[in-house]
Design brief:
2 domains, Glyco_trans_20, six-stranded parallel beta sheet, ten-stranded mixed beta sheet, binds GDP-alpha-D-glucose, Alpha,alpha-trehalose-phosphate synthase [UDP-forming], Rossmann fold, 475 residues, alpha,alpha-trehalose-phosphate synthase (UDP-forming) activity, globular
Length: 475
């Protein structure tokens, strides 16, 4: 068998390949692994089994041949510029994303977007079918690819299919707005195991299946009817809260250079008594506006003052061509400008706002420098930032203010939990974090850290894949 036609026992299918384009020292284009948690979590499986990863390479209208990197086969799927607009920006990020996040922004539905979504999902399914070895395990990821499980099962009934949804699954009353709701459920039910972040998401999915497909489920086992009266199958739905690569983050946090950089960041910020931090993609689901409103009011009230307290808000650019993303950026920038205009002093801003991304080491230095971490998402599948902050606090200092509407809040019960829609609660929670007694902070952080380090992303992928291996096939 030639390299090109080699087939793999373990195949990951995700919207993006886990690599970024780089220009090498010789000026030639190449690839570098992107530092995502998912790839760290899957690394042990990728290397012990023969692993391949199928995904979009990040540029449109470009055909790229499969290639190997870090002992992984990478199989690029091509997207045209129109497909990027309709499948990715359109259906995935302007229909599904807002619909699955409590309709914080109104979802738009367009038939042309749906058609592109079907076409691109079919392309991913075909690529997976051509890459998977006999009886391989194929793990499909996220809301961009919900039709792939059933499409792949049609092409390759021999493979074991897992699906994991990284974002929330909405309550039926919201999901039911989707014109193609039944097709999405049928797509997902093509998997043997359908994983969600929280039990709440699993329950929402099972309710939608009951209402729209009419099948019953016991202990998360759905009886999927066979086609043309043939024998049915079992699809299992279960929650698998994702985690982070705790060990590598703790190693970075213990690195003297990173610690020096953290101290330097505080000095550069004028050595505030309290440094608060927010790290988010610039997305309307992350509650950045709510956070700034609470922070601004605390300054207005005189409860927080400059230069005693400062907030660093890192908002990495995201989906910038979409209308609601332009809007949230404008809102955030107006709010930052207003707070700084009213409360900043020469050389001492109330809010330091950065709209760009940082290398991983610098992110960890920010986590180490921050006394208070603010995670105020209005809805979030999990929120890895909350877990990352905790994992780096090796000396058990620091306080985490965490929205109840994140998946992470189910596990991180020792955080200061908050309803970000309740501005009074948000203000009081921020003040609680600012004024927390060191002993209480240490007790809480120790318990949070135990939770995050015992349950890292490698455990998560192991738990998912071993459950997938044992799902019964027939009723
Ligand atoms: C989706 C779901 C779920 C951010 N800025 C920089 C940077 N980041 C990294 C963070 C973190 C990741 O990006 C963001 O992860 P989140 O979980 O916070 O949020 P989403 O991007 O919305 O992720 C979410 C997740 O999938 C996993 O299942 O938890 O609910 O929405 O790791 O550190 N990293 C670097 N520079 C930056 O400037 N290096």
């Amino acid at each position: 068998m030639t390299q090109r036609t080699k087939r793999f026992d373990f195949v990951v299918v995700a919207n993006r390949l886990p690599v970024d384009r780089v220009t090498g020292e010789d000026g030639k284009p190449g690839w570098k692994r992107s530092p995502g948690g998912l790839v760290s979590g899957l690394e042990p499986v990728m290397h012990t089994q023969d692993g391949a990863w199928i995904g979009w390479g990040g540029s449109t209208d470009e055909k790229i041949a499969p290639f190997d990197l870090d002992e992984m086969r990478l199989v690029p799927v091509e997207l045209s510029a129109a497909e990027f607009e309709q499948y990715y920006e359109g259906f995935a990020n302007a229909s599904l994303w807002p619909l699955y996040h409590d309709v914080i922004a109104p979802p738009e539905f367009h038939r042309a977007w749906w058609d592109a979504y079907v076409r691109v999902n079919q392309r991913f399914a075909k690529a997976a079918a051509a890459t998977a070895a006999d009886k391989a395990v194929v793990w499909v990821h996220d809301y961009q690819l919900q039709l792939v499980p059933a499409m792949l099962r049609d092409l390759r009934p021999d493979v074991k299919i897992g699906f994991f949804n990284h974002i929330p699954f909405p309550p039926y009353e919201i999901f039911a707005q989707l014109p193609w709701r039944r097709r999405i459920l049928e797509g997902l039910l093509g998997a043997d195991l359908i994983g969600f972040q929280r039990p709440y998401d699993t329950a929402n999915f099972l309710r939608a299946v009951r209402r729209k497909i009419g099948t019953t489920a016991r202990h998360g086992m759905v009886k999927v009817p066979g086609t043309d009266g043939g024998e049915g199958r079992i699809a299992k739905a279960q929650s698998f809260p994702i985690s982070i690569d705790s060990q590598s983050l703790a190693e970075l946090a213990a690195d003297p250079d990173v610690q020096r950089r953290a101290a330097e960041i505080r000095t550069e910020l004028g050595d505030p008594r309290v440094l608060m931090l927010g790290v988010d993609r610039m997305d309307y689901t992350k509650g950045i506006r709510h956070r700034l409103k609470a922070f601004g009011e605390l300054m207005d009230d005189g409860d927080l003052t400059v230069p005693d307290v400062t907030l660093v808000q890192i908002a990495t650019p995201s989906r910038e061509r979409l209308e609601y993303y332009k809007q949230i950026r404008t809102d955030v920038e107006l709010a930052v400008g207003r707070i700084n205009g009213e409360h900043g002093e020469l050389g001492a801003a109330a809010v330091h706002y950065m709209h760009h991304s940082y290398p991983r080491r610098e992110m960890v230095a920010f986590y180490l420098a921050a006394d208070v971490m603010l995670v105020t998402a209005l809805r979030d599948g999990m929120n890895l930032v909350a877990k990352e902050y905790v994992a780096t606090r090796l000396d058990n200092t620091g306080a985490l203010v965490l929205s109840e509407f994140t998946g992470a809040a189910d596990e991180l019960r020792q955080a200061i939990l908050v309803n970000p829609h309740d501005i009074i609660d948000l203000k009081q929670s921020i003040l609680r974090a600012v004024n927390i007694e060191p002993r209480e902070a240490s007790r809480r952080m120790r318990s949070l850290r135990r939770r995050v380090s015992e349950d890292d992303v490698k455990h998560w992928s192991h738990r998912f894949l071993s459950t997938l291996a044992h799902v019964r096939e027939h009723p």
